[in-house]
From TrEMBL:
Any matching Pfam family: Cadherin
The species this protein was found in: Phainopepla nitens (Phainopepla)
Protein name per its UniProtKB record: CAD87 protein
Domain Cadherin as annotated: residue spans: 1-77
Top-rank taxon: Eukaryota
Entry GO terms, CC: catenin complex
Alphabetic keyword roster: Calcium, Membrane, Repeat, Transmembrane, Transmembrane helix
Spans through the membrane: 185-208
GO MF: beta-catenin binding; cadherin binding; calcium ion binding
Principal place of residence: membrane
Gene from which the chain derives: Cad87a
Gene3D superfamilies: Cadherins
InterPro entries named among the record's database cross-references: Cadherin, Cadherin-like_dom, Cadherin-like_sf
Length: 254
């Protein structure tokens, strides 16, 4: 607003839509999420801008906010026998068909191919589409329920998609992929292995050291016995049982 003073001061507000889930900075118009835990998809918000003049002027527009839920456990993978670029080009129509047949709001998380990007776009007639379904309250529909509905409506979905792609279409629900270990989990596993290896090495060292000391102790004892037996022991008995002389041998006299 090029006006000055109150006539140039524009404040923003949410006037309709999911206003409990979102908030807006009245001075900048920046929109924030407030309570969207467990929710995802596209939310339509009606935003109003109004100046603060005596005769306030207003304008309204609809803002579509997409909340990504790519970490959701309710993602379902749909396999379509079409090239990835063809599916991407008809993304809106594919979403429309799925919403019409499943009777849920559908959020398409990702469109991809398991082949390399170059090869997939030129020759691979198989594209995977990750979707999440939402009910009227914007709550995620459990993946098992979505998969069941997809199988039940498979023929109807294929028929509608054939009109979209102008080609024969087959649709299948992919088996759930095993989740990859998080970096934190990998680090914990590696650390655990290292600690275990270190503990084993330390234990082996302690055992070897004890055996070495025990062996060394036996050797010292044998040497001591040999030394004692090799000198004139004043307390040793002679062959006839009498004590030997307590006198030192001549070579021990100083």
């Amino acid at each position: 607003d090029p006006d000055s003073g109150d006539n140039g001061l524009v404040l923003y507000s949410l006037v309709s839509g999911q206003i409990d889930e979102f908030d807006i900075d009245e001075h900048t118009g920046q929109i924030f999420t407030v309570s969207v835990a467990g929710k995802a998809g596209t939310f339509n918000l009606e935003v109003q801008a109004a100046d603060q003049g005596t005769r306030s002027l207003t304008a309204r527009t609809t803002v579509s906010v997409t909340v990504d839920s790519s970490s959701s456990s309710n993602i379902v993978t749909l396999v379509i026998n079409q090239k990835i670029n063809v599916v991407e080009r008809n993304r809106a129509e594919v979403q429309r068909v799925l919403e019409d047949k499943l009777e849920w709001n559908i959020y398409m998380v990702n469109i991809y191919s398991e082949e390399s990007e170059t090869k997939a776009r030129s020759s691979t007639n198989e594209t995977r589409v990750n979707i999440i379904a939402f009910d009227e309250a914007h709550q995620e529909v459990p993946a098992a329920e979505v998969e069941r509905s997809l199988r039940e409506q498979r023929a109807a979905i294929e028929l509608e998609l054939e009109k979209v792609f102008s080609a024969s279409v087959s649709v299948a629900v992919a088996e759930a992929e095993a989740a990859a270990a998080s970096p934190q989990l990998v680090a914990a596993i590696v650390l655990g292995v290292l600690l275990a290896a270190t503990s084993v090495a330390f234990l082996a060292y302690v055992l070897l050291d004890l055996r070495r000391k025990r062996y060394t102790g036996k050797q010292d004892l044998v040497k001591k016995v040999e030394i004692v037996e090799g000198i004139d022991n004043p307390w040793a008995a002679d062959k006839n049982g009498s004590l030997k002389s307590l006198e030192k041998p001549e070579y021990m006299n100083y």
